[in-house]
Amino acid sequence: MTKEITSAAIDKFTNDLSNHAGINIASHAAQENGIFKASQNLQSKIDLTPTFSVEIDTGKPADQKQSGRCWMFSALNTMRHPLQKEYKIKDFELSQNYTNFWDKFEKSNFFFENVIASAKKPLGDRKVSFLFATPQQDGGQWDMLCGLVEKYGIVPKSVYPETANSNNSGALNDTLNTLLRKDGLKLRALVNAGKSEDEIEQRKNQFLNDVFRILAISLGVPPKKFDFEYKDDDGNYHREAGITPKEFFDRFVGMNLEDHVSIINSPTDDKPYHKVFSVEYLGNVVGGRQVRHLNVKISEMKDLIIKQLKAGEVVWFGSNVGKDSERQLGLLDTNIYKRDELFDVDFSMSKGDKLDSSESMMDHAMVITGVDLVDNKPTKWKIENSWGEKPGFKGYFVMSDSWFDQFVYQAVINKKFLPDDLRTAFDEGAKDPIQLLPWDPMGALAFK
Q1: Is 385 a catalytic residue?
Q2: How do residues 262-314 score in pLDDT, each as one tens digit?
Q3: Closest to 147 (Cα-Cα) out of 282, 274, 53
Q4: Does the annotation count 364 as an active-site position?
Q5: pLDDT digits (tens, 9 = 90+) for 364-411
Q6: Nearest-CA neighbor of 167 among 317, 62, 321?
Q7: Catalytic residue selected from 41, 70, 238, 376
Q8: The pTM is what?
Q9: Catalytic: which of 81, 260, 293, 364?
Q10: Residue of 411, 170, 431, 150 lying closest to 285 (CA atoms)
């Protein structure tokens, strides 16, 4: 039986305030400065000085502006760093708008195909509602970027630059989602009217033609071939004429994407360690690379990342950047705010409980470029963000090891660094991964 809040209970709560020492000071500080400023711990700034024993120089950070393409920027950053070094091109960037175009186009087809497959279910079905809630968006994960590159290649940013609609994606997303919902309902009607597969496919392609036109007007038409011209840091001129995006990726990036796998840390009862998981409705390229995650212990994840950094390779990772973070200072630390002391309340939760209760989930992707090891144990990590040079240390953040424990959920590791047991676990599990429901926290998209 439900029970209301009584006046007696409120009187009791009010009288209890006097039992908490320093409540007047806490009240003044919180009401004048806000909760986070009032509880900010300056010791974090001291502990997280940007000095690292293992560090990879990656140059100037990129800027995703007002878009949710962090996963895309971070993934392309991991690909551009070796290219910058090998070809001596300082601050070179790959085109994030190029992958953005194809991502939105492929996500539209992915949405239509899932709508057709689920058309017999009622609109009130939770999975159907999930599909129509956000037909497409800016967010994504590592495997989704790989699927795009494997199909379409990549181009330099100079060849296919940003536009107003890629830098600030709100209007384009709203426009596309309105159209996709409208056309999605039409496809459901065709299926339920018993129309043939050919007729449904024909209508879907008509809808995709409209999507392509909207993207072409908003973002530009992606090049099929282009001339790659540049001067290296020594002032030497280079030109590669008539190269395709896939040829450019193979020649100038040359990363074997199949060798890079996603590992996650999800300490929840439903996800045993060393098992491979996928998520229903998570993807973009129909018939392309499937999202696959190998669940590992947090200690295993750290060991693998450190191995990769020591070998000179940066690491793409996904985390909950909105928690215990100070954007302008560029600090990620579980001790940066002392809200428990401010309010005299215990806020502590296990990582598993945070995931199970939706208190936390992945919302942002960045790149780990360094670590500070003391007695061979990590104390802090160097992070390349994609929010430009203003926040943090000229665009770089410092993450405490305790923050890593609580809020890092995913990392991409070169398979050569996996021990035999984990490599076998991934290779065997990837053949038939355990399917998670669409709203599982491991299906959360990095979008900040």
Answers
A1: yes
A2: 999 999 999 999 999 999 999 999 999 999 999 999 999 999 999 999 999 99
A3: 282
A4: yes
A5: 999 999 999 999 999 999 999 999 999 999 999 999 999 999 999 999
A6: 62
A7: 70
A8: 0.96
A9: 364
A10: 150
